[in-house]
Input
Amino acid sequence: MNIPQTAAEFKDLVDLQSIPLVYLIPAIFISALALPYFATSYFFINTAIYVLLFVGLGQSWNIIGGYAGQISLGHAVMFATGAYTTATLFIYYGITPYLGLIVAGLLAAAVGLTLGALTFRLRYHYFSIATLAATLGIYVIFLQWDWIGGAVGLEYPIAQIGDSLSLMFDSREMYFYVMWAFALGTTVLVYRLHTSKLGIYLKAIDIDQELAENAGISAFWYKMYAMGLSSFIAGIGGGLFAQYVLYVEPRILLELIRNVEFVLIPVVGGLGTVLGPVVGAAIYIFTREYTRTLLGGTQTGLSWVIFGTILLLISMYRPSGLIRRRPVIGGRKQNTQSSAAPARSEADDD
Amino acid sequence: MIGLAYGLVAAGLGLIWGVMDIVNFAHGEHMLIAMYVTLLTTAELSVSPLLLLPVNAVLMFAVGYATYVVIIKRTMDGPVLGQVLCTFGLLLAIRYGIIYLVGPSTRTVSDFAFDGSTNAYGISISYPAVLTAIVSVVTIVLLYLLLEQTSIGKAIRATAQDKQAAQVLGIETDRIYAVSWGIGLAATGVAGTMIATYFPIQPNSTPGVWTIASFAAVALGGLGSIVGAVVGGIVIGLVQNLGATLLDPSYQQLYVYIVLIAALLYQREGILNWVSDR
Output
C-alpha cells in the first residue's frame, strides 16, 4: 500500500473505502463460515453463535440509534416480543418457528411502531427515558402474565429437538449457520440502507431534525420507518434467541442489561456504520464470555463494571465508537496511522 | 410519606437536569452508594444512621462534584448520546461494583433506635418512615433556601437560565455545574441514608425504582423547580400507594411508568421550549 504523503491523497484513499464494503462484507462473512471447522470446544462455538446473533441485534439498534440518532433504551421490548411470540406459537399451537419467526418480527414491528408513535414526539434524552420506562413497564406486565408463564417463563419441549420443523438442533453447528444467516441478512439490509436515500434521510434527521424537516423530510414518518425495520429485526433476533436457549423468561429477556447490550454493541463498534455492529458484537461477546469464565459468572457483576467503565470512556473520548463514521483528515499523525493499521482503516466506511 | 423522600431525590435529579440539561440515569445508583454506606457502617460500627446524614451528604457532594469534573464535563459539548451513555455507564459501574463488593442480597439496617410502628386510622405507620419524611422536609426546605437566598443559589439559577449571560457576568459556570452535581447528589445522599433505615435494599432493583420515580416526579413537576419536583414526588408516592390499594399491588411500579410516559408526552411542549431557549 502506498503511504499517502498529503492530506488530499489520504482523503482519496479513504474515499475509496466505501467501495470495498461490497467485498468486505462477503469476505468477513464467508471467512466466518469456516469457524465451525476450527471450533475445538463448546465454549468457542457458543461464543461464535452469540457473536452472530448480537451482530443482528446490534444492526437492529444501529438503524434507529446510529442512523436516525434516536437513543432507544427500549429495544428489549421488541426482543422479548419476538422471543415470546415464537415460543408461544410453537409451544402452545405447534406452529413451526420458521413461520413463527416471521410473525415474531411483524408483531415486534407493530409493538415498535406503537412505541414509536407514542414517543417519537419526544427528543433527545426524553425519548430515551420514555423508552426505558416502556421496557420496565412491559417487564412488570410480563412478570404477572400467567399465560406466558409469569416470572417462571416457558420452556421448549426438549423431546422435539431435531424435528424437521422445530428449528431446534442437536448440533451447535446448525445454530451457527442460522445465526450466520441472520447476521448476514441484517448486515446486508443495513448496507442497503446505508447506500439508499432512506439512510441519508435518517442521517439528516440525526444531524439536524429541524433542517431536515425544512428540506421536506417528515422526521416523524422516517423515524417510524426506521423503528419498524429495527423492531422487525429485533423481534426475529428475540425469536432466534429463544430457539437457542430453549426457554423464555422475563428476567432474561427484559432486564436492563438487554437494553444496554443493544446500545453497547453499535456504540463500541461505530454508530451509523455498516460494520460497526459486527466489530462491536465481536468485541462485546468475546469480552463477556471470557470475563464470565475467567471471573466466575456474571452474578458477581464484575464484567458489567468493566462494560460500564468502557461506556464511560467511550462517551468521554470517542462518542461515535471505535470505527469513525467519517475519518477526520489531518496532519501527519493520521498518515502514519493509516499505514500502520490498514486493517482498521479498511473498516472505515462511509 | 414516601412521596416526600421521592420529592427530595427528585429535587436532586431536577436540579442537575434543570441546570445543565443532563439526565442522570445513574441517580438511583448514586443513592445506592449512600444506602450502602449507611448499611455497612451501621452494621459494623453500630452508629445511628442519623449521625451518618451529614457524612453522607458531604460524601455524596464530593462524589457529585468529582463526577462532573472528571466525567460529565468531557461530554458536555458532545452529542446527547454521549451524555446518555455516560450516565448509563456510571449506572452499570456503580450498581455492579456494589454487587461485586457487597453481594446481590437484599439488606436492611438491622437495628435503628426509632424502629417500631403505630396504628393511626387503621393504617400502620412505621416510625422510621415518619422520621424519613421529617428529614426530607427539612432538607427540601434547606435546599430551597440555598437556591433562593444564597449567592451560590443565585449563581446556579442564573446559569440555568442563560449560561452565556452568566459567564459574561463573571460566574464560573463550570464550577456552578460541579456544585449543582454536588448538591443534587447530596440530596440523594440524605434521602438514601434515611430510606436505608426501613426499606429493604436490593442493589439490582432498588436504584431503578428510585431513578424512575424521580424521573416521573420531575417530569410531572416541571424542570428547574424544587417545589415542582417535591409536588411531583408526593403525587408519585400517592399514585403508587393508591394504585396498590385500589387496583393490584403487583403492578405498583407500572403505575409510575405510565405516569412518567404520560407526563413526558403531556409536557413535551414545555420541555422542548425550555431546551430550545437555552
